[in-house]
Amino acid sequence: SCGAELICDETTAATKCPYCGNNTIIPGQFAGTLKPDYVIPFRKEKKEAVDALKNYYKGKMLLPGSFSNSNHLEEIKGVYVPFWLYSGHVDARGLYDARQDEIHREGEYEVTRSRHYEADREGTVSFSRIPADASSKMPDDLMDSIEPFDYSEITDFSLSYMPGYLANKYDVGKKECGRRAEERARHSAADELQATVQGYTSVTARTHEEKAVSEKVEYAVFPVWLLSTQWEGQNFLFAMNGQTGKMIGNLPVSKARQAIWFLGSFVIFLLIFGSFLLTGEDTTASSYVIAAAFALIPSVILNMVLVSQMKPVARESRAAAYAASGGVRLRVKNDRYIRTTESRVKLQNRQEPGGGVNHGRPPHGHR
Q: How far is 116 from 98, CA to CA, in rounded Å?
């Protein structure tokens, strides 16, 4: 409208004039076979995305104190991201080793009697509209992490939804994206099939195979807010689901805070375990080593949990959210008894808190 010439890349379908601010749509990018079948409209506004990012910082124990105060929001844009949607089914078959344990006490021994079974399963799991982003500009792990979208609001595509937002057409083909969707479907089908082996103490897969069959592929554009921030020379990219408001993105980790949390938790766990293990007259050097080892394990686990909160972005390997209700449709369900084994463990006298001695009581009680 202002007469300026816009220069875009070959995948741009909707953009904004940097001079007058008017929205510009390039209809040819969404014409013919390039036209999406469906669209999910934006439900979240720009201000909601900015507020969601601020809230996202809260509760992150390892976040550097200066990050939320001194980082600068470089860019925020609403983008209709292209997605391929895959529907089909997976034929799965698995052979499993299952065990049923019974534990009881005989005198000074804890006896475990195990009945071993071979479980054979075969069935089909159907999937509907597994999404895979079709833009090479979008990080796959970031787009996977803002799932799921609510398909109850999906509607036929129209250019009337585009003004005010950026939009790209797909530049990754349905065959290439299909491999990702197929892998997710196969993994979820394997999980669903193994979950039908029930009533056992433990179940392990001996062999399994899955065959994915694609029945339908659809093309859609979904709403995503992209927020780019800068802090200490580093760029951080966040994404918010423009429909549901789910925010995701990796955050920097403060090494100082990480060390404080690790050492603090180690001391607390050491005091807890030490109060039980370092009492009595027979305390030795090995008792201190054991107490330190018991304190180290939960401290490491806590540290890993805190770090995982800072780095939540990851490729999705499952598609359980898109499986048909009812789960797997079984064709074969056969459990065969194989043998019974028995193991005995002598119950050792063990030190009790306060210096008392436990004379042969099972450490795990009766089951």
A: 6
